[in-house]
């Protein structure tokens, strides 16, 4: 068991390449502890691939290489499939983008929330039910006892995402990966759900890796930001420093958010040639 | 935070259901009648189905014998009522054999993929290419006629459609987010196959079963007609039609009574299957 000081995830020179040999994630290194870290970047920059590799759920067609990849104190490079299954859910958990597609439509909410517990813990039926109730309550869902009998299609998107969060957290993992958990929700709900994730992660002293597009959100809810671009981690900085970012890419990302101040003016776009020049200069 | 959730859908939807005449309602009623007839045959049948009264042979329908009598003077109504028993027994035996086998093969093939899938699906294809009644006849000829052997023979050629359907659905599900999300909780292997994939494939399998029951009843009657099913003197619709066909031009009711029963049963299950398809899939609900 890693203690509080040891990092939960250590990745060193992590490279993910496709079957054709194209590197999709290039030689990235990072360490994640019990903190809230955001991974931001454009579509296709390799954020989700990186996250999936931490869960051991890369598509078999992809090839993973690293000098070190340790997850929750285990060497992820040599982990057997059955050991991975034990880790997932109990030590690591992931919340997916859209609850509409990620909850099994044929099973009740209660059954789905209880399943990780049945798998990872030895509890009696009554204890499981009680824990499920507590968990549903903790994610801010009203009337958990009735809710347990319901099916996913009877829930709204925000409730579905809360259920997903309950499923992810019920077996007390130490590390949570949230892959754009709010992109299927409307704006008001986004802040609620993110604040909830943040609160739960803090309460349980967990690590969080939040994958997001929304820099504003990230700056509010995370401590550290890693910026990915075309498979590289370009920049790592404390979230509070985002407005004063020094890296030109991060600066562009930050300044291209539409807001009241930019109304009527064209938003800055990314000068990719300048960025390439900057990276070569590095 | 909770207040904008409560008013959404948790306020239990009070739905007033008007009784509608659906195919499920009609089919279900017909199936229920069939089941009740089989269950309470001794109470419902006016005569002993096997009592032969030679003086009263081939009587047309009358107030004493509602459907007339057959060549041995047995009351046709009683025989039709008793005939529902072997038919339903055969049908349930076939279902018990085909659905589990078909689902198991299909889900394994779809989930495991690779060589397992190829081998399993080629075996399925072989069984699919066998002509239903001919193989059943061959098998019954080998094993000897009887209810159980008839069921076995018909089951042998009725499971492949279930396997193919289960495989197709599993394939579509394999890349779905539900299963990815389930894997993220550490759910794997058998638990994933039977906890998550099976319930998603089951509704369509049940519908398929109900729809194919009509055909199975016809095949079962066909076996009886050819003398390969339940042996006389037990009343069975197929063999009753066979007996009636000898006198079909002069005493049409002898064949028409069991024939009508076959039509009735087949229709009942087809309607039920149709209705179930609309109802059972929670994905289409609301």
UniProtKB/TrEMBL annotation, chain A:
UniProt-listed PANTHER family: DIPEPTIDE TRANSPORT ATP-BINDING PROTEIN DPPD, OLIGOPEPTIDE TRANSPORT ATP-BINDING PROTEIN APPD
Gene3D superfamilies membership: P-loop containing nucleotide triphosphate hydrolases (3.40.50.300)
Recorded catalytic activity of this chain's protein: a dipeptide(out) + ATP + H2O = a dipeptide(in) + ADP + phosphate + H(+)
Keywords: ATP-binding, Cell membrane, Membrane, Nucleotide-binding, Transport
Family listed: Belongs to the ABC transporter superfamily. Drug exporter-2 (TC 3.A.1.117) family.
Originating species: Erwinia aeris
Location of this chain's protein in the cell: Cell inner membrane
Domain ABC transporter: 9-255
GO terms for MF: ATP binding
Protein's recorded name: ABC-type dipeptide transporter
Catalytic EC class: translocase
Keyword Cell membrane: yes
Membrane topology recorded in Swiss-Prot or TrEMBL: Peripheral membrane protein
Domain of life: Bacteria
Main subcellular localisation: membrane
E.C. numbers: 7.4.2.9
SMART domains: AAA
InterPro entries according to UniProt: AAA+_ATPase, ABC_Ni/Peptide_Import, ABC_transporter-like_ATP-bd, P-loop_NTPase
UniProtKB/TrEMBL annotation, chain B:
Top-rank taxon: Bacteria
Protein name, UniProt field: ABC transporter permease
Annotated organism of origin: Erwinia aeris
Membrane association type: Multi-pass membrane protein
Keyword annotations: Cell inner membrane, Cell membrane, Membrane, Transmembrane, Transmembrane helix, Transport
Family classification: Belongs to the binding-protein-dependent transport system permease family.
Subcellular location: Cell inner membrane; Cell membrane
ABC transmembrane type-1 domain location: 84-273
Gene3D superfamilies, A to Z: MetI-like
Pfam families reported in the protein's UniProt record: BPD_transp_1, OppC_N
Organism lineage string: Bacteria, Pseudomonadati, Pseudomonadota, Gammaproteobacteria, Enterobacterales
Ranges that cross the membrane: 21-45, 88-112, 133-158, 178-198, 210-231, 251-271
């Amino acid at each position: 068991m890693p203690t509080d000081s040891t990092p939960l995830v250590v990745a060193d020179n992590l490279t993910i390449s496709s079957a054709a040999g194209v590197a999709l994630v290039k030689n990235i290194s990072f360490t994640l502890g019990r903190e809230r870290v955001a991974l931001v970047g454009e579509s296709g920059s390799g954020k989700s691939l990186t996250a999936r590799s931490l869960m051991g759920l890369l598509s078999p067609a992809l090839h993973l290489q690293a000098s070190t990849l340790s997850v929750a104190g285990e060497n992820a490079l040599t982990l057997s499939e059955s050991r991975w299954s034990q880790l997932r859910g109990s030590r690591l958990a992931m919340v997916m983008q859209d609850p509409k597609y990620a909850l099994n439509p044929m099973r009740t909410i209660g059954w789905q929330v209880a399943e990780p517990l049945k798998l990872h813990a030895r509890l009696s039926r009554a204890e499981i039910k009680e824990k499920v109730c507590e968990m549903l309550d903790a994610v801010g869902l009203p009337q958990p006892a009735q809710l347990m009998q319901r099916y996913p299609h009877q829930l709204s998107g925000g409730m579905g995402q809360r259920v997903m969060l309950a499923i992810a957290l019920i077996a007390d993992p130490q590390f949570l990966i949230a892959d754009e958990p709010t992109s299927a929700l409307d704006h008001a709900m986004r802040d609620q759900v993110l604040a909830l994730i943040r609160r739960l992660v803090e309460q349980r002293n967990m690590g969080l890796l939040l994958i997001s597009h929304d820099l504003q959100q990230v700056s509010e809810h995370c401590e550290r930001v890693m910026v990915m671009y075309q498979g590289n981690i370009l920049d790592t900085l404390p979230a509070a420093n985002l407005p004063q970012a020094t890296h030109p890419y991060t600066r562009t990302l930050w300044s291209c958010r539409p807001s009241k101040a930019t109304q009527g003016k064209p938003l800055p776009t990314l000068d990719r040639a300048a960025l390439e020049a900057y990276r070569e200069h590095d | 935070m909770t207040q904008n959730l409560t008013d959404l859908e948790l306020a239990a939807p009070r739905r007033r259901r008007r009784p509608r005449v659906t195919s499920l309602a009609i089919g279900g009623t017909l199936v229920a009648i069939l089941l009740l007839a089989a269950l309470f045959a001794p109470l419902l049948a006016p005569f002993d189905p096997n009592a032969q009264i030679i003086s009263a042979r081939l009587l047309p329908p009358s107030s004493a014998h509602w459907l007339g009598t057959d060549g041995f003077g047995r009351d046709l109504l009683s025989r039709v009522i008793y005939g529902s028993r072997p038919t339903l027994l055969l049908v349930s035996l076939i279902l018990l054999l085909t659905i589990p086998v078909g689902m198991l093969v299909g889900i394994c093939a779809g989930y495991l993929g690779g060589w397992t899938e190829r081998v399993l699906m080629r075996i399925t294809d072989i069984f699919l290419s066998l002509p239903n009644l001919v193989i059943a006849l061959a098998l019954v000829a080998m094993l000897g006629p009887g209810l159980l052997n008839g069921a076995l023979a018909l089951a042998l050629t009725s499971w492949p459609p279930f396997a193919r359907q289960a495989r197709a659905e599993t394939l579509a599900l394999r890349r779905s987010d539900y299963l990815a999300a389930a894997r993220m909780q550490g759910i794997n292997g058998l638990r994933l196959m039977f906890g998550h994939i099976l319930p998603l494939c089951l509704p369509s399998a049940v519908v398929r079963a109900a729809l194919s029951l009509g055909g199975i009843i016809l095949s079962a009657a066909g076996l009886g007609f050819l003398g390969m099913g339940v042996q006389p003197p037990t009343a069975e619709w197929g063999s009753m039609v066979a007996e009636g066909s000898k006198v079909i031009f002069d005493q049409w009711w002898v064949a028409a009574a069991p024939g009508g029963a076959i039509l009735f049963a087949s229709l009942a299950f087809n309607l039920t299957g149709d209705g179930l398809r609309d109802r059972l899939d929670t994905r289409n609900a609301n």
